[in-house]
Design a protein that fits this description.
two-stranded antiparallel sheet, single chain, six-stranded antiparallel beta sheet, 2 helices, globular, alpha+beta
Length: about 140
């Protein structure tokens, strides 16, 4: 019999896989490609550097989720042509706000699907409103 932690881990993993798959479709027109079929990173080549969007799942204790909520921190960073990190401080979604001054809603319930679409919409919105301009500013 599986424990509650194992069930929660499986549920959150399925939710994370779903949001990554759907985000892949939305970010593709911007030139980003998922780095591997089950990964949480997307890349595209800029003028000098590789642009990287990475999802960090928050809300875990020792790697196991605390509950069925999928909470995502979006990290925007650069890599060189060999795929090595570039020494430019990354931009993270918790550092920015939307035009009204509100934080982006980057979480949903993996069991009920509550706020899933809002989360997905805000993932692409934070990428377009902050990630893309940040990439353009630092890769000119």
């Amino acid at each position: 019999m599986q424990t509650a932690t194992a069930n929660t881990s499986a549920t959150v993993k399925i939710g994370m896989d779903r949001v990554c798959k759907d985000f892949t479709v939305l970010i593709a027109p911007l030139g980003f490609v998922r780095t591997n079929a089950r990964g949480r990173a997307w890349t595209r080549f800029g003028s000098r550097l590789r642009h990287v969007v990475y999802f960090h799942r928050e809300g875990s204790s020792y790697g196991a989720p605390r509950n069925n909520s999928v909470s995502i921190l979006v990290n925007f960073s650069f890599q060189d042509e060999e795929g090595l990190p570039v020494r430019i401080d990354p931009l993270t979604s918790n550092m920015v706000r939307d035009e009204r001054g509100y934080a982006y809603h980057l979480r949903f319930n993996a069991v009920t699907g509550s706020t899933y679409q809002r989360c997905l919409d805000d993932l692409i919105r934070v990428t377009k409103e902050h990630g893309l301009p940040w990439f353009a500013k630092h890769d000119a």
